[in-house]
Amino acid sequence: MKTPKNVGLNDTFITLVQVAKEDPTVQATLVRILSLQPELRQTAIKQLVGQLEASQAPKEFVVALAYLQDDDIANALFVELSKI
User: Fold this and answer.
1) Which domain of life is it from (predicted)?
2) Which residues contact 26 (CB under 8 A, 6 or more apart)?
3) Residue ranges per domain, the chain?
4) pTM of the entire predicted model
């Protein structure tokens, strides 16, 4: 998946980050995923995205999670969530 350079303009991604900062369970889940080696993280995100698509989750949410396949985005969010 080609990640757009304007991920910071994606409202759903921003909301996902805010929720992760406020909800310890969401934060812990994302940190566990983001701390995986890149190949494992990408596989886990792809599987999660597939499951969400199959369950007809909101497309915007699926796209926001799919951004985490990108190494730079995943690393930046991992650093941010690890500060909390």
Assistant:
1) Bacteria
2) 19, 20
3) 8-82
4) 0.85
